[in-house]
Amino acid sequence: MTDKIRELCVKYREIIVYLIVGVLTTIFSWLACWVAKFFLDPTDTMQNNIINTIGWVAGVCFAYPLNRKWVFRSVNPQVLKEFFEFAASRLSTWALELVIMMVTVNVLHMSYWIAKIFIAAVLVTILNYVFSKLLIFKKKKD
Description:
mainly alpha, globular
């Protein structure tokens, strides 16, 4: 049984590590949002956008080195270029998150954290993995 589990862990290592890094990144990003909410009002659309932008910036800066080293094991010598590609790929999911949060919180009056956790985070996590895997940290074919 343990050999089978080990085999599955090796086979799905990248996804498992991505999910672990994603949870850590999400916690870090949400912590930044939580702190920002002490100074800004999420029921105000502009301030809600600012809160989510602060969380996004914190998340991207936290996630890049972990994704580079542990998830995708990048050896690309152009680290700065790779970081900017990583950040640029996150812009579309950031915009998606802003739209989701505006609609759910400001239009539908849903709880901020319910919308953030159960709607925005799920969609953003999936898309971020796809973009990282296919665009940023793609393996070079020999």
